[in-house]
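Board work, copied verbatim: High-affinity zinc uptake system protein ZnuA
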Amino acid sequence: MLFAAALFGLANTAGAESNSPAEPFSIVTSLPPLALAVQDLVNEAALADKVSVESIVPRGQSAHHHALKVSQLRSLKSAGIVVWVGPEMEQYLAKAIGQRRPENVVGFAALMQKPVVDYHLWLSAGAMTKLVTAVAEKLALAFPEANVLVAASTYNARLRQQTQAMQQRFAALPTEAGVLVFHESLHHLLTPLGIKQSASLVQVPEQQISVHTLMQAKSRMLPGQCLLADVEELPQAQPYAEKLGAPLVVVDLLASAATTKSYEAFLALLANKLATCFQSATGQDGSGQDGTSQDGE
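↓ predict structure ↓
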């Protein structure tokens, strides 16, 4: 009876504030990496012909200071499920999402059992399994005939296997020196791989870097350390990499490349880029030894 009531409720809200019967069920996410994982789930559940997935922030565009368009507001209002990180990171979405029924919304940060300090949660495959499960539970109510929860379990098992393969890969590399980061955003990528972050130059991308901060970072540097920066930060990071005498390694934190077709491929690309920080010490090229897809390279 409880499941039937929940299903009836989701069907009603989907009809009232979501798609008409003639339209596909839509899932709107705030960022491209979230859309990749949700699309993976939809594909795994064989619902690609019935469910559309889109991102409010398009590929290749900055998520900072994003302004909602009227068409995007309509998409948020009509979506069967809305997926976002949360108001702490995406305040510009708070009003629009606050008008949606809670049962139609998945907040990534709200799924975490511990207080969140770094909101770049999509860089953690472990965190992403929680998001995939939460979306699957809602999607299963809309499509009870599909094995959505089984699909989520299968997909999450692959993400865990990929993480284990990445951990084994980096355990074999000389990562003891750790890395420098331009913007405090890589905790969820580095920590599961056992890679230390010796310093970050800025807490937020717009922050000005003082001479004191730069000197502190330089004093903490170890020989061979690289500076990691997002592709959006390249113009700002390049001069500081030169001042620090550190190799600059650019990563794509928002899956901006249109050739990246899945979340698994997104993780593989991040791992390959990160591995180049340590390749000079081994003579290896840092290419994928993690058993994952290299789509998008």
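The chain is about 40% helix and 10% strand.
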